[in-house]
Amino acid sequence: MPTVVMYLSARFTISPKSKYQPSALLDHIEKCVDLLSVAFPEASVVLAGDFNTLDNDDIVSRCALMSIVDQPSRGNSYLDRIYVSGLSYASVKVVTSAVKSDHMAVIAHNGPPLPTYNKRRERRAFRRRSPSHHALFLEHLSLMTIELTDDADVQANFDDMYAVMKSLLDRFYPERQITATSADPHFVTPTVKAMLRRKNRLMRAGRTDEAGALARHVRTVIARQNSSWLRKVNTRKCARDAWKKVREVTGRTRREHPDVDGITAQVLNDHYAVISTDPQYQESKLKQTAVDRRSGISEFEVFRMLDSLKATATGLDDIPAWFLRLGAPVFAAPIA
Asked: To 5 degrees, how large is the angle CA 15–CA 18–CA 19?
């Protein structure tokens, strides 16, 4: 009885920087895949390696292959990829390499799922928020008055105001710690992970209604985080940018921009700071006919600024934007 042999043809490509033309390399890969497909119609073609700046969409469309790696392998870059002509592997994982390298290791295999032994864990801080926390905080604010001394130094008043705000934040929204791992998706923030753990505890306790409500809230939070990527994209004027953002959210972006030697963010900041500064600048005198706009800021203006703060990351002062928005009615007067 004849034996059917399935040939497996593989090509590993490591693309050096600035030593090839992407179009020429794509033409060569396309020709090789076509030759293998003609010579061995039943074979499985696997293309793997560090593809650097080669566009994923070009490889998929020109070579008729499927990309099975959907996680970044070097920082936030999708450099190490695997393309197959058919569904050859049941599981694909991106793990920390066993050798000294800034690239992750990509493992494609069949069989039972492999456990992750070198998963990195870290303790991350977060503040739990709920309607009950907000109610207690606002009730306490309605009974307190923050008074600052007009004769005191500005820095002293700032320190006193900061101490009051920090004490209120730590009292009603104490800082908690939770363990995050390198295997968690990007949208699983410490707050989301804490809610997921609480949902699991409710499920084990038989409180399925509360667990279901919390699961719907988690889904809403994750959807809100992903939708924030698309807020500044005009889908009518530029569909290309919209699809680019969609690929970033789904983890399927592949186009990478090569680094330029010697150019960093700090170098650019220093350059533009130098060309934007005039060391010989002298402030012109105010004309008598001009309106003097050096008037103090009002409490209502401060309230509007605090109340319209956008959701941003917490700065070095450790005062989140949502806390300033919530306490704007009380914080506006002493700040003004």
From this structure: 65
